[in-house]
Design brief:
With about 160 residues, the protein is an alpha/beta fold. It has a single domain, classed as Flavodoxin domain (Rossmann fold). About 25% of the residues lie in helices and about 20% in strands. The protein contains 5 helices and 5 strands, in the order βαβαβαβαβα. A 5-stranded parallel sheet has the order 2-1-3-4-5. Helix 1 crosses helix 5. The N and C termini lie close together (about 10 Å).
Length: about 160
């Protein structure tokens, strides 16, 4: 049986709650991707062209620092990777996370939360941040999914807590 990690970035707790459901359903470990400098509500104001998140997302080379780089990625075969959708893709802090570890030979299954958008270019934007031998799969937008439905999806992927 493969060892599974659920890694996630969450600013308002929505993605964190979905990550917890996946971890429980898959019998997986949980790891929160924390920014070195936490985001404030002002940082997340997408209507403000000078807010931190807007500036980061406009610059595809932006790599916000993460608080720690101590996840034991080598111990896992599969990583569920969750984040809120920002500007039709993953926040650039997800690239920071992926570039901080060796994901060679790993399968990465994305999940996200969103106020109405889809994954957009998330897979395309994240692929350059991992080795060619890592597989990134688009998963699901989980915003409005109930825990039982999320658990069923995890089970359909071949993971269960048993």
């Amino acid at each position: 049986m493969s060892k599974v990690l659920v890694a996630y970035f969450s600013t308002k707790g929505v993605t964190a709650k979905k990550a917890e459901v996946i971890a429980k359903a898959a019998g997986a470990d949980l790891y929160e991707i924390k920014p070195e400098v936490p985001y404030t509500d002002e940082d997340l104001d997408y209507r403000n062209k000078e807010s931190r998140s807007t500036v980061e997302m406009k610059d595809k080379a932006s790599r916000p620092a993460i608080a720690d780089k101590n996840a034991d990625i080598a111990a896992y075969d599969t990583i569920f990777l969750g984040f809120p959708i920002w500007w039709y893709t993953a926040p650039t802090i997800i690239n920071t996370f992926l570039e901080s570890y060796d994901f060679s030979g790993k399968t990465i299954i994305l999940f996200a939360t969103s106020d109405g958008t889809k994954f957009g270019k998330a897979v395309q934007d994240l692929k350059p941040s991992v080795s060619d031998s890592a597989v990134i799969k688009e998963g699901k937008i989980l915003t409005n999914m109930q825990p039982l439905v999320i658990a069923r999806w995890v089970n359909e992927l071949g993971f269960s807590e048993e």
